[in-house]
Amino acid sequence: MDSTEKLNRQFGIGGQLGFRAVDGGLVVAEINNAHATASLCLQGAHLMAWQPRSQAVPVIWLSRDAVLASGKAIRGGTPVCWPWFGAHVSDPSFPAHGFARTAPWRVIESGSEPDGATRLTLCPEESDKTRALWPHDSRLELTVIAGETLRMELVTENTGITDFEITEALHTYFRIGDIGAARVGGLAGCDYRDKVGGSTPGKQDGTIRFTGETDRVYVNTAAECAVEDDMLKRRIRIAKSGSLSTVVWTPWTEKANRMGDMGQPDGWRETVCVETANALENAVKVAAGARHTLIVEYRAEPM
Predict the structure, then answer these.
(1) Is the distance from CB of 180 to CB of 284 less than 8 angstroms?
(2) Is this prediction's pTM over 0.85?
(3) Which residues carry out catalysis?
């Protein structure tokens, strides 16, 4: 991994983008521009924070008990789930949600957008460990553009001569006032698989409200959705492309207590996950020589 001095020299943008080492030996990119602040850990290319200047409260949630340590997933922010979402389809010993979220990534480009937003592009570093888990010739890139909106682009390129299949997600934790006063709109009429109920199928009736553990994969939908928060009086719009699945998740009390890093005792009440994904029957076949791009853009507005 490059030193912070080298990263700042090569990719830093004075007063807008810098890199610093944190406890645990990891490196964090920090963005501070006219529109927003944001931070991203180079391990996992893991977005940890984003707060537009227009918002008194961060839009992205990071657990107060999150641990930044080599090889450990960070609780909160936006983990990159790739090249599989959930458990591996054939080998349960492989890490859940793939290896990208705990792998070291390297910065390959940075810059300023015409509107003053800050752009950062990264790709994971290959190793014997990652090749053992994913023996396909491929290239993965994540571009994050942080400004008044937050845009993330996850690009999978098949650089080999045989097709392969991926599932994936940008597993974003949003900051809310309280899970009991929040809801997710925009998915009415969509089919879902209820993972709490053993992947039983269902169809969404109206707005999603939360009264217990929720873990649903909405399939065959490219719809825009929104987190509506009565307590913070704001709406977080989630627009996407290259994605046909949306995952909505909250662990609730018992599961959050078992997890141990959700910000005890009630940190889980301040977040809900709405994940832009391709999962289950929406797995993506990437042909030899082809590319697949998943894009999501977030915007916070008053209700």
Answers:
(1) no
(2) yes
(3) 171, 275
